[in-house]
Batch of 2 targets.
Target 1
Amino acid sequence: MNCPWCDTAAGPRALHAHLSDQHGDQVSTTGRDGKVFYEISCPLCGARYEQLVRKGAGDPEFLAEFETEIRMVAFDVLVHHLLAEHAQAAEQAAHEQNDVGDRRETKR
Ligand SMILES: [Zn+2]
Ligand SMILES: [Zn+2]
């Protein structure tokens, strides 16, 4: 599969690492009502995912400490989205990540 932000091609697991390393700023975290959310958008179709971060909400130090972890989770969501919605390399993906290998559907 291809990185949606650059031309890097990799399997889901490698792509996930690439996203965390290179595109960490694509994940934004926002605090609201004492809760912390992370947010990530798919650059291909604009789908937006917003999830509540479940622990330590409201603590600014928490965000710094767990920023990497939050990114990992957010990119996990994105990689699954890419596989489900934009998978041109679904076969390659199936080898590496069995749990999404059956979510192969052709759209249009
Ligand atoms: Zn990239
Ligand atoms: Zn998308």
Note: The pocket of zinc ion (ligand 2) is lined by residues 42, 44-45, 47, 81, 85-86 (CB under 6 Å).
Target 2
Amino acid sequence: MHKRYPMINHKYLDLTSMKELPESHAWLSLDHELPSHNSSTPDQVPVINLKDPNAIKLVGHACKTWGVFQVTNHGVPINLLQQMEAAGRKLFALPMQQKLKAARSPNGVSGYGVARISAFFPKLMWSEGFTIVGSPYEHARKLWPNRYSRFCDVIEEYKEEMNKLAQKLMSLMLGSLGVTMDDVKWASLQGSSAALQLNSYPACPDPDRAMGLAAHTDSTLLTILHQNNTSGLQAHKEGTGWVTVPPIPGALVINVGDLLHILSNGLYPSVLHRAMVNRTQHRLSVAYLYGPPSNVEISPLSKLTDQVHPPLYRAVTWSEYLGTKAKHFNKALSSVRLCGPLNGFADTNDHNGVQVG
Ligand SMILES: O=C(O)CCC(=O)C(=O)O
């Protein structure tokens, strides 16, 4: 089991009012984790136009080599992205006492609070979050007793558009593995599960010693992230190190999650990523966490395995995997692994050697 830390008292500090970084949020020097710089040939996260006739190939290559890419021409209306961002801003701008009325309960998943991965780190992160699973209504009503419907409408519309895009991306990702949506019965079912995670990273008085969101992989099939125009997201690439994923107006960031990693038998690595903060800008991001119906067993696709390429992972349901992640955090994938890497078929997602916090 991964080491857990007791919750620190300063959990609900109003970060926007802080003139100095409190000890509770001061991480050790992050210098050893800075992105590697090679100015002549910067390694950049791929940007894929989904209307490109070669989109399947481009998506496959990006999944294999990076586990993260940005997409343009994705079909989600730009004004919906703007409305979602405005709704997030409005929520996080509420006074702390108001936000706490919608606080996530100790064992719950929905609501306002610090990052759930905080329990695995001795210091707190410079961020606050709001998680929505299912209807936003109950929590929105506590935040705005008389004016919650606009927020709920935007969330519902956003989830609908994200679901459409997630299906399109799944079809491209599976297609690039030589598999169709029909081969994977649950993939085209309506019962897919998802959560929406709103993240706020206020401007920070000492950004070099603070951490917005510590390095982690997502427990999803895939994640669709909208970030505002402030940089902060970094992805880790084997052999390169930490690379900033720059905001591109209108583009969305796609991460391969742990379940796609399992499904692809390690061919598409689940990407380790984190969020940094800065001194002057408030950063906001909205992650759509997309997974299969929660009780469907996910295992390496049979088309991808044979005697030379045995399944590397055992079958898990999403709900079982979430429990494993809550216990083992960044070692969860290794904990459902069946056998060690074979020659030429290495699992690129062994993050045990990467400093995550
Ligand atoms: O804010 C970001 O860019 C990253 C968010 C993220 O990784 C998450 O919500 O899991």
Note: Residues 197, 199, 213, 218, 225, 227, 232-233, 273, 275, 285, 287 surround 2-oxoglutaric acid (CB under 6 Å).
